[in-house]
Amino acid sequence: MEMKRSLLVLTCTLFWGMACSASKSIREGEWSGTFYLNDTTRMPFRFVVNDSGFVFVNGSERIAAGDIKSAGDSVFVTMPVFDSEFRMKKDSDELSGTFINHQRISNQTIRCKAVYGVQAPLVNDFELNDFSGRWSAVFDGDDPPLNVAVAEFAQTANRVTGTFLTPTGDYRFLDGFADGKSISISAFDGSHVFYFTASLDHDTLYGHYYSGTHWHDTWKAWRNENASLPDADSLAFLKPGFTGISFKYPDPDSNLVSLRDARYKGKVVLVQIMGSWCPNCMDEAMVLAPLYDKYKARGLEIIGLDFERINSFPEASSFIRKFQKHFSIHYPILFAGSTDRKLRAQAVTGLKDIVGFPTLIYIDRKGTVRKIHTGFSGPATGKHFEKWRDDFYRFVDLLLKEK
Q1: CB of 362 closer than 8 Å to CB of 237
Q2: Which of 91, 129, 238, 352 is the least buried, fewest Cβ under 10 Å from its Cβ?
Q3: Are 272 and 284 in contact, with CB atoms under 8 Å apart?
Q4: Prediction pTM value
Q5: CB-based contacts of 28: which residues, under 8 Å, 6+ apart?
Q6: Which domains does the chain have, with CATH numbers?
């Protein structure tokens, strides 16, 4: 019997061996969520329930989670790309439970709740400041040069959107509110829970940054239209005496792959150092995947070197397959080991260090490393992403034209 779907009807399945009862419906429309990061810190997030499933909203970004199951009064939402999920109980127009990131070794679980409707904060309009513009920022928890950032905010009334650009990538589509001399902006991408708060004191922002329940940092920022970051092409480099790199790692089917393989002889090769857990790597993959399909016939090859927080080949293979399928990646991704700083520093022969994820290594047809680019400014950075993309295509085209 076919049911009319004025509401989103959740598919009945078996979950952990439990028989699923009759389907439960979740009310369509906007929902307001809360992550409980500690005893006092509450991070808001938003999603819309519609025919696409649960669609999470970060500024102009939309992330649809369509893998939804129910068992009794329980609702299970599996996120795309990342190995993460919501496990919640439904009570009328309220959902409560936990968000679980299985790719983390510790601090995997965050308590959460969501209620139907838009829950906009009360705002003190009388003292509302304008936070739009470009800011130089410094984070206290990192060492130079990785502790600097550039914040770019846009504000309409009390709504604030923007991101932080850092030497290793950006914090994606941050979205939130201004209230008097304070701002709070956040993003949830299906794995990462980013939350920034700050208060303005004279000309300086003093703030806190939370990444889920496992990380807290403090930061400060000041207006600077000329704010800049270290050169992304200078952070990682080869060891003295080396002109190229080498490695040999397995793909998810246990096939060992090396740059010395016949497939790569005389080809332009891009080596993407990445992790399936990394949002900036995800953004970069959305550029690399179609590039490979377009330019493979001209002699372009790409290899992904995947570093995981969980140093397990079977689990890493599962993560890699899911990553490749979601982004339609047709080049090999190899499991290179753990993200542990000491281990990853030794993972690629000839490379001095892996400073951050992603890192993109450009190799010409003679096997010479021509450039190493650390980090990725994704679509959330607007004009910065467009500039990187233009420069990227231009340089790859130059390498392909060389004999």
Answers
A1: no
A2: 91
A3: yes
A4: 0.89
A5: 6, 7, 8, 49, 50
A6: 8-116 (2.40.128.120), 125-223 (2.40.128.20), 248-401 (3.40.30.10)
